[in-house]
Design a protein that fits this description.
The chain has five domains: 126 residues, no CATH class; 343 residues, 7 Propeller (Methylamine Dehydrogenase, Chain H); 126 residues, no CATH class; 76 residues, Elongation Factor Tu (Ef-tu), domain 3 (Beta Barrel), CATH 2.40.30.20; 64 residues, no CATH class. The chain is elongated and about 120 Å long. The chain has no helices and 69 strands. The protein is 0% helix and 45% strand.
């Protein structure tokens, strides 16, 4: 019989998929494990049992996932003023770190200081947040303001107004000082070829939208050809003839005998029932449309083609320089105005014109009448005096008119068109992306002017508004500021590239497609030089990083080896070199309530996954990091069996989950935390595990049977770590031993600072023979040996512990007999 010593000295690839257990031919096999539950991977290659999550705040009771406290995110105002924000389906919870409810310093505390149930205008938070959209909300913070975006509600501002006070308000775009212009994005949502005709150029006007072409009133007994535009005067509705016919019946055409031949023209929203002559529930009401760049607020909607609005300024077109031309001795002035759409005898008003060709300002400006139409870009009017020379000039005048025009659009973001999904700050701009009606559009504010999205004249600091334009719809879901502005969509990954020593501007901004995978709703995180994101399927974690070899970004899977640990995650957070160690980690909250924990050290080419589980029936619901601290929102039964949400903190100093301190006096343990009343808890006293006790309804339990117990102990729920090697396969001269009976003999484990360990259910005694048993045991560092018996076709080493104390495994050496 041959004895072979098999070393496991490196677990850098973490827990690998069951599908890889047979791959004894690859390097990964000997540098991974079949099971790593409740362990962190160390950069040196070993694994260490995770510390406990310390109890911080209990939130209100919950009866299901639609209850309170379903997501937490960080809010960092300054080095010493930090918060956790909790989103629920009815409120926003504010928790401050390291202060109490009076504002006094309290190191390590997490204090719930405020519950916000309405915005500053009195609208309930549940009109914005719901159980279905909380996980999809994107956010970005600058100073004392956090912006919250989702396609179903107007962007919100969560504003810190003082140390212990926040408020919620709606995001609004800046307005010009005279209130005649709103600096918001606009877009033409109308079909190609549609026009708008205002009934006047100032004040309140009627707006009619229709396809370009002549509009006639419908009349019975007339023959109509395809494409003819008709107006039903009884309901102010415009129709297009869709099949040649002779009209019959009577208005309205929607119920006419020839209704199949009439196609209703639709632009204005007609949600709800008509009241009188209006649609009071129309989503166009209170929206802003623009006619040739001038804004009109919609007051009411009469039909799908007609609305009433109030012009904020006046309807005018600003002409180019020297747009007027005179002819010597003539009072006829030719005007160059692209696509003017005017007709002979139309009234116009000329403003801000300079003298030209000897005609004084007073004889040019004012009310005029169109005399002739030269072409679609030029017309003439009669001035008040003759020119003394032929000349081009007139400065840059304004032409006030209300002719039919295809140059109209409306605000990009509204309840009708949807609101932005994605948001971030990048290069001094606030960026929005991906609304329902403009899913592939990207909007950047003016530089350092986050509420101003005026495109202006495309100066370097003006707003940037671009689309992906790749021939397929790519709905933007996330924006990340990294090496470039990274754009994650449902189908692909894009960048807005940076330029050396040159910022992104309206004239150089472009979107370039990089990879074709698509992202889920989980917010990506910047980690270890890359951006980590969850693929749309919810089963693959990828890193988006620039490749010098490819001269482009790539999106490699980092979860290929451990795909079984990725279960449609709902939340993700990154931790950079913390928990008293140099490693960095990513935490993913799975749908099943577990945490998938990813460790990466790019410089050493090490990366792997482990899994965290919550004791008993509890589950992880959300996770966030605040600088070097990690917080988990968990859902767990309390002693009475009622489920609650709890904010907990990963704390190196504790051994148990939901860990709290309890006092002991005269043989009685007392806890002030009512969450444990009626619960069975584990008790840890320093380096000793004292077993479990059931807390009475008054928060006490007798511990008189526990000799030598300290005056303060730790209570909570015991964490069960599990480390299981891959099957111990050997490649011999005759080939691999896979599937053959093999004996597992001696096992040597190299441990560090360990207080409890079992190997294949065999407990290792931590105390040395020279230890004083009346004293607390000391953690052991070094190599421990255990001899095992038995044969198996898949011999494995399983390491766990009986006592919930410290455990670190550096390596395992196993002897196998074949």
């Amino acid at each position: 019989m041959q004895t072979v010593r098999i070393p496991f000295t490196n677990f850098q690839f973490g827990e690998i998929s069951p599908s890889l257990i047979g791959r004894t031919d690859i390097e990964v096999y000997n540098n991974s494990a079949q099971k790593l539950t409740n362990f962190f991977i160390r950069n040196e290659g070993g694994v260490i049992k995770r510390p406990g999550f310390k109890y911080k705040v209990r939130l209100d009771s919950a009866t299901g996932d639609s209850g309170i406290g379903t997501r937490i995110v960080p809010f960092i105002f300054s080095d010493d003023e930090k918060y956790i924000i909790g989103f629920t389906d009815s409120s926003i919870l504010i928790m401050i770190l390291d202060f109490d409810s009076s504002g006094s310093a309290s190191a390590g505390a997490v204090t719930h200081i405020q519950t916000i149930t309405a915005d500053v205008d009195g609208a309930n938070i549940n009109t914005y947040l719901s159980a279905t959209n909380i996980k999809e909300i994107n956010y970005a913070q600058s100073g004392d303001v956090m912006f919250l975006t989702h396609e179903t509600f107007q962007t919100l501002k969560l504003v810190r107004t003082s140390l212990l006070k926040f408020e919620v308000s709606k995001f609004t775009f800046d307005v010009r000082s005279d209130a005649k212009q709103r600096f918001q994005p606009y877009f033409g949502f109308q079909p190609q070829g549609y026009t708008m005709t205002p009934s006047g150029s100032t004040g309140q006007v009627t707006l009619t939208v229709k396809p370009s072409g002549t509009l006639a009133d419908w009349a019975s007994g007339q023959s109509y050809t395809v494409g003819t535009l008709l107006k039903d005067t009884s309901i102010n509705q415009i129709y297009r003839v869709s099949a040649a016919h002779t009209s019959s019946g009577s208005e309205p055409l929607s119920t006419n005998a020839n209704s199949a031949s009439y196609q209703a023209i639709v632009y204005f929203d007609t949600t709800g029932s008509k009241s009188g002559s209006n649609y009071p529930s129309s989503k166009h009401v209170d929206l802003t449309v623009r006619y040739r760049g001038q804004e009109i607020d919609i007051d009411s909607v009469q039909s799908s083609t007609q609305a009433t609005g109030t012009i904020l300024n006046k309807l005018f077109v600003k002409l180019d320089i020297n747009a007027l031309r005179t002819i010597n001795t003539s009072n006829v002035v030719e005007v160059t105005m692209p696509l003017h759409n005017l007709s002979v005898s139309d009234s116009i008003t000329i403003e801000e014109a300079d003298a030209v060709g000897g005609i004084a300002v007073g004889n040019i400006n004012g009310s005029r009448t169109v005399a002739t139409i030269v072409d679609e870009n030029r017309f003439t009017f009669t001035a008040g005096a003759n020119a003394t020379s032929s000349a081009d000039g007139g400065g840059a005048p304004k032409i006030v008119c209300n002719a039919e025009s295809g140059d109209f659009d409306e605000q990009s973001f509204s309840a009708l068109r949807g609101f932005p999904r994605a948001i971030c700050f990048h290069e001094g701009r606030l960026w929005f992306g991906g609304s329902v009606s403009q899913p592939d559009s990207l909007f950047g504010s003016k530089t350092n002017d986050f509420f101003n999205f005026d495109v202006g004249s495309a100066s370097d600091n003006d707003s940037i508004q671009i689309t992906t334009s790749i021939g397929e719809l790519s709905a933007i879901k996330h924006l990340v500021s990294n090496r470039d502005l990274q754009v994650f969509t449902e189908s692909s990954e894009f960048i807005v590239p940076a330029f050396q020593n040159t910022p992104v501007t309206p004239t150089n901004a472009m979107i370039r497609r990089q990879t074709p995978y698509g992202a889920s709703h989980v917010k990506p995180v910047v980690f270890d030089g890359a951006t980590i994101y969850l693929q749309r399927s919810g089963t693959v974690l990828r890193e988006f990083i620039f490749s010098d070899k490819e001269a482009a970004y790539i999106a490699s899977s980092v979860s290929t080896l451990s795909g079984h640990l990725i279960d449609n995650p709902q939340d993700m957070a990154s931790l950079q070199a913390a928990i008293n160690r140099p490693e960095s980690y990513i935490f993913l909250v799975n749908t099943d309530g577990t945490l998938a924990v990813f460790n990466s050290d790019r410089s050493q080419k090490k990366a792997g996954f482990t899994q965290f589980t919550w004791p008993s029936s509890g589950t992880f619901k959300s996770v966030c990091t605040v600088d070097e601290r990690t917080f988990a929102l968990v859902r767990n039964n309390i002693g009475t069996g009622t489920e609650y949400y709890f904010v907990t903190e990963l704390d190196e100093s504790v051994n148990l989950d939901m860990s709290v301190s309890a006092s002991v006096s005269s043989g009685t343990l007392t806890t002030s935390n009512t969450i444990f009343n009626g619960a069975t808890v584990a008790i840890v006293d320093g380096n000793n595990y004292l077993g479990t006790k059931t807390i009475a309804s008054n928060g006490t339990v007798s511990v008189s049977d526990l000799s030598g117990i300290s005056s303060t102990v730790e209570i909570g729920y015991a964490i069960t770590p599990t480390f299981k090697t891959n099957p111990l396969d050997i490649n011999t001269q005759e080939g691999p031993t896979t599937g053959m009976l093999r004996g597992l003999g001696r096992v040597v484990v190299d441990i560090k600072d360990t207080l409890s360990i079992t190997i294949n259910s065999k407990n290792l005694e931590i105390r040395n023979v020279t230890d004083d048993p009346s004293q607390a045991r000391q953690a052991i560092t070094g190599k421990k040996e255990v001899r095992l018996l038995g044969y198996s076709r898949d011999p494995q080493v399983t390491i766990s512990q009986n006592d919930p104390l410290s455990l670190q495994i550096n390596s395992v050496i196993a002897e196998v007999q074949i």
